[in-house]
Design a protein that fits this description.
single chain; mainly alpha; 183 residues; membrane; flat; transmembrane; MARVEL-CKLF_proteins
């Protein structure tokens, strides 16, 4: 008996990637960790904060520049922190860190950015020179801050719903409390 008859190939040749298989960068990107409404809101936060930053950068001169500089710092920080949170949620980094800490960080980052963006937009509105770029920047700033605060409200609602599901039922057992433990 020859070796060819005994040692036949037991696997098929690789015919290439199957339909629907993910490869390359797509294999590392999983947006399903966030529900669709929060995913859309996170995308809008990213887009609106970037647009606010770009519109603010177009401003060539200012009379009272303090509000402009504060708005610039907040809009750039908001964009970068939002991008960071999206990368954590949508890449394998999420699997390497504690999910509770990611959600808690997202909770506080979203609240902080939303509040600071709203404050920066109010200050910028009160100090700008009424050019079209400044008006567009403040509009995008108010829209972005509303998206951050809406996302924060959704997270508060989800935490409230989650705590109500975990809450045990309260039963009235007054007679059991008066009985001795060793009886």
């Amino acid at each position: 008996m020859e070796n060819g008859a005994v040692y036949r190939p037991t696997t098929e040749e690789n015919s290439g990637p199957a339909r629907g298989a993910r490869s390359g960068l797509a294999a590392c990107f999983t947006p399903g960790r966030l529900k669709l409404p929060r995913r859309v809101i996170k995308g809008l936060q990213l887009l609106l904060s970037l647009l606010a930053f770009i519109c603010e950068e177009v401003v060539s001169q200012c009379t009272l520049c303090g509000g402009l500089y504060f708005f610039e710092f907040i809009s750039c920080s908001a964009f970068l922190l939002c991008l960071l949170m999206l990368l954590v949620y949508c890449t394998p980094i999420y699997d390497r860190v504690d999910a509770v800490k990611v959600k808690l960080s997202d909770f506080y980052i979203t609240l902080g950015i939303g509040s600071a963006f709203l404050l920066a937009s109010i200050i910028f509105v009160s100090t700008h020179d009424y050019t079209s770029a400044e008006i567009a920047a403040t509009v995008f700033g108010f829209l972005a801050s509303s998206m951050f605060l809406l996302d924060f409200g959704i997270m508060v609602y989800e935490k409230k719903q989650e705590s109500q599901l975990r809450k045990p039922e309260t039963t009235n057992r007054a007679e059991a409390l008066t009985e001795p433990l060793n009886a």
